[in-house]
Amino acid sequence: MDYAQGGYLLQQGKSSAREDKFQPQMHQEIHMFNRLKEDIQVVFDRDPAVRSVLEILICYPGFHALQFHRVSHWLWQKNFFLLARTLSHFTRLVTGIEIHPGARIGRGFFIDHGMGVVIGETAEIGDNCTIYHGVTLGGTSWAKEKRHPTLGNNVVVGAGAKILGPFLVADGSKIGSNSVVVKPVPENATVVGIPARVVVSVAKHQDVKRSERPDLEHGKIPDVQERTTTQLTAKIDALEQRLNELETELGK
After folding, report:
1. Cβ neighbourhood burial of 209 (10 Å; 0-12, 13-18, 19+)
2. CA separation for the pair 148, 167 (Å, rounded)
3. Which of 11, 22, 58, 91 is deepest in the core (most CB within 10 A)?
4. 55-63 long-range contacts, CB within 8 A, separation 24+
5. Is the pLDDT at 217 greater than 60, yes or no?
6. Fold for the domain defined by 103-239
7. In whole angstroms, how large is the CA radius of gyration of the chain?
8. pLDDT tens per residue, range 151-207
9. Strand, coil or helix: what is 170?
């Protein structure tokens, strides 16, 4: 092998090394762009008020908070803790949404309106979840351990709901507005109240594809107090009727 041929092969090796070096970066950029497009499509799928991509980019704080969180979470994973927290704090000032950079969030996540949302450090959110303004995914311990809830896939959390503690809200569940959830929620269940109780439960799991729209009809939830009051009233009426019958029999 002459020097010219050796130099050519060396140059080729350097070119291949440069290509190998930039290949992961290119894939990462493509991944980020695809994820951005996916997040935009999620807004179109779940908010009938949206009219354009530009409107989403400018006017949707939930979308902004999610994009900032992706960056702060990456910084958190690289041990740039202070920088990650600083970016998270800036996001809170701009959007009114506080997401700790340590929180893990899946795909297809949508925060509607968003003001007052708080998501703690050890919270985990599955795919295709939707939460509304005023929601808290909070902890109940000061220990440095798992202390925030885990949301499964296709979970809907109504406005003002508080989910407190390191437990699972299983796939397909719905949390009624202003509920306070302090214990695990079974699969495909609907819970309401303070503390929250199961009012609807689907025994047989039905798979929901991530491309399908989630059930956002969180307003169509049974009124537990009304149902209980109706049952008590019916019971009292039955007892009064029986009492009248006994008084009539004794009067004879």
Report:
1. exposed
2. 7
3. 91
4. 61/94, 61/95, 61/96, 61/97, 61/111, 61/113, 61/114, 61/115, 62/95, 62/97, 62/110, 62/111, 62/112, 62/113, 62/114, 62/117, 63/39, 63/111
5. yes
6. UDP N-Acetylglucosamine Acyltransferase; domain 1 (2.160.10)
7. 27
8. 999 999 999 999 999 999 999 999 998 999 999 999 998 999 888 888 876 654 454
9. coil
Which 3 state secondary structure label does DSSP give 60?
coil
99 token code pair: 């997401």
**If you ran DSSP here, which 8-state letter would residue 110 be given?**
E
Beta-carbon contacts of 130 under 8 Å, excluding residues fewer than 6 positions away, are 46, 109, 110, 111, 112, 155, 156, 157, 214, 216
φ, ψ for residue 168, nearest 5 deg? -100, 130
Structure tokens at 81: 């803790």
DSSP lists the bridge partners of residue 28 as none
| Both structure tokens of 40 | 């935009």
